[in-house]
Amino acid sequence: MWKVMIPKKIAFGENAARDFEYPKNSLVITTTTSDIYDRWLGYMGIKNYEVYDKVTPDPSIETVEAIKKEYDGRDLSSYIGLGGGSSLDVCKYLSKLTNIPKILIPTTFGTGAEMTTYAVISFDHRKKLLQDERFLADAAIVDPYFLSGTPFNIMRNSACDAAAQASEGYDSKLGNPLTKLFCKEAFDILEDAIINDKPHLLPYGAMLSGIGFGNSSTTLGHALSYVFSNEGVAHGYALSSCTTVAHEFNKSAYYERFKKICQKLKFEPVVLKQPIDQAADIIMPDRGHLDNNPVPVTK
Ligand SMILES: [Zn+2]
To answer: How far, in Å, is the centroid of ligand 1 from the Cα of 275?
Structure first.
């Protein structure tokens, strides 16, 4: 049996966030500041809402609990996650606790989090990757409007993450004909967006990548990348090297094309600071990624 899960409602393309009909009495959850989200909310034309803007990057379970407590008994109709991955993850977890529906609107594209059953929440200062069907959005809105003003560095890291996820997801042993279809289409669109300078296509490509890898998995490239994350390298940046090396190792059909994308985005190779033996000891227990890699990985 094969299974693919996607949000109940997906609105995407130009003006998707402007034309969407938002429920009244929603709680907008965001990581940004009012000068930015006031403009976003104005564009969205949303009425009768409250804003919670105290979510910080790498949100903790304490943040989730605090929001739940603050709005207890307030008869909210829905949560609206508006921002980067952190706001979306907080909404996902809150919705699981309270059964209040969630609308997810990514403004930094790349993770595809609006499409997946994954959430990253910190417990005791440790980031934990969680998966739960209840994390799936009731509605996801993907609108290139939010791209404007995104710094080049964030844009290219996100683009690289989306392309890495699509190609690793395609090669994943957990893949099925439908996830491969999404991953393949996602990579084609992301490649066109990056190589031919069409950034407005990135959100749609990242969205398809989210459906594809979110229903299969990422593999060796992502497994390798976390040692660099721990050394302070941005996720997408680390993948430019790690996924290239992983695709070469796996003899992936995407090796050359992924490498060209990274060259176009002008990534320099990442350099490991810790001893390689120590890094390998961190990577090897990551069975979630390594067991789904198409080629067995030894230390
Ligand atoms: Zn990723």
So the answer is: 24
Banded model confidence at residue 108, pLDDT cuts 50, 70, 90: confident
Domain end residue (candidates: 147, 170, 192): 147
Say how many Å lie between the CA of residue 11 and the centre of ligand 1: 23
Residues around ion ligand 1, judged by CB within 5 A, are 161
Q: Which of 193, 221, 243, 239 is nearest to 292 (CA)?
A: 221
Residues 210 and 251 in one domain: yes
Say yes or no to pLDDT of 110 above 80.
Answer: no
pTM, two decimal places: 0.94
Centroid of ligand 1 to alpha carbon of 116 (angstroms):
12
Give the pLDDT band (50/70/90) at residue 57. confident
Q: What's the pLDDT band for 113 if we cut at 50, 70, 90?
A: very high
**Claim to verify: residue 137 and residue 161 sit in the same structural domain:** no
Cβ pair 121, 64 in contact under 8 A: yes
Q: End-to-end alpha-carbon separation of the chain, Å?
A: 33
